[in-house]
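the two lines:
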Amino acid sequence: MRTRPAARAGQYTALLAYLLFLAFPFLWLLSVAFKPPRELGSLHPTWIPKHPTLVNFRQAFDEQPLLHAAGNSLLAALGAALIAVALATPMAYVMARQRTRLARAVSGWVVLSQAFPFVLVIIPLFLVLKNLRLIDSVPGLVMVYVVWALPFALWMLVGYVRAVPVELEEAAAVDGAGRLRTLLSVTAPLLAPGIVATALFAFITAWNEFFFALVLLKTPEKQTLPVVLTHFIGAEGVADLGPLAAAAFLATLPSLVVFALIQRRITGGMLAGAVKS
Amino acid sequence: MSLATEKRGTVRRATATGPPRGTVGHGAWFLVLPALVPILVLSVGPLLYGILLAFTDAQSGRTAPTRWIGALNFSDLLHDTLFWESFRIGLVWAVGVTVPQFLLALGLALLLNEDLRLRWLARALAIIPWAMPEVVVGVMWRLVYNPDAGILNETLRDLGLGDGRDWLSGLATTLPAVIVVGVWAGMPQTTVTLLAGLQNTPRELHEAAEMDGAGAWRRFRTVTWPALRPIALAVTALNFIWNFNSFALVYVLTNGGPGGRTRLPMLFAYEEAFRYGQFGYAAAMGCVMVAVISVFLALFLVGRIRGGDDA
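prediction for all of em together
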């Protein structure tokens, strides 16, 4: 479409303003993370550290059990992603191929579950997990994350299953393949990228989760990365800026990398789910 | 054409003894149960249990048995001015984040739908807020807002716009400051969703409208918006619900302070439940929040049904 030069200039100005708004907090986080304490104390902070240093990173590891917390986060996120996808894939298949009342009820639940204030769910869960002695344990948290990840895993997977043409399965049936064989040799390979994307999305969501982890994990050695991060901010809200920024940056890296890999697929899946299903 | 018909006929014959076309049959339950049981036990169950708790005097760490106290929690809530204040703040926050988020995201989605350079950069940068843990977003903006060592005040000083202030601790500035962070954090997701919606609208319609001499605004009003409306409605309703329920961002930024000016309903309920141990009372708060949210959920469902005709 033709656009006049003046309009074009306006468009680019708007786009640049947006890019700036998007980028500047993150660039500032980086700047603070690599600044030596002396520069952080200065009243006139600069964008570029004059003497870039890794000292904040070392101090961050000294002050809080970051490595341990990252291990807990990894365990919780991996466990949640693998279990959620293993449970959700068969059900998503049924929901996508069969328009029964159950499928409708479940997709209704998927929408509803997006809307809960977590506090209404966490109090009973807290009581139940306490009775099962699963409070303050990563397996208990994984249990919560799995259930919490199931709705959107189903949501995404249903979209991916629908993208696999039924005709292919029928053709395999004509060729004499049994149901299980059809599923394994025809459907599964076509579904695999969608399953991986769903698992990675579940991983990131669990890696980033804060509220359940805050409520359920009490001892510092059991806590996940987001919870440990808040320990850098003292009771009075006074924070040691350098180590705080360093730890925050490290906590984000895995999500950023994974998300960059699957970003396009998520958009498609989420949109299909949100507007259709 | 004839080949296709023939193929279809073969298929029908081949599956005549099995379940009808495109269904799963008796294996279905076996496939459904692994996901359905955990959902029922650990999600539907707790939700119902939570609603029951709202009618009891349940407290954490109490030895006496929990008693059924009817609607007492709710009548107490009715007189709890702090709760209603937090409710009001929650609404201001949710509207304050959702509306600018939508308008900015719509503008940006329209821009990115044009043939501009730098689109790749916008896409790459959009990943940052979307993928970041909310806690990190909160930490990051604390660094930006920091009264002495923050970049915001330094930039304002450089521009000669006063000596800056303590944005997060000032009674007047704290809620707007927190809202800006909320907008920043949720914008990419909204933008990408709207952009996907835009790319689904047929290009021919635009071209036809342009040939008829319709200007940009007219094209937006008559072609773009009608096609985008169901998605826009769904996204806005969901964003509102998510924002109203949000916790981590504000917990890290201000922890509800100063003086409760940013104490969102979730922060209030969290404190009530896990600092003061008032499980029953906090559950009642949750119920009231659900009631308000259902209104917006209904809006979302209406949007989905209208937009889902082609599903």
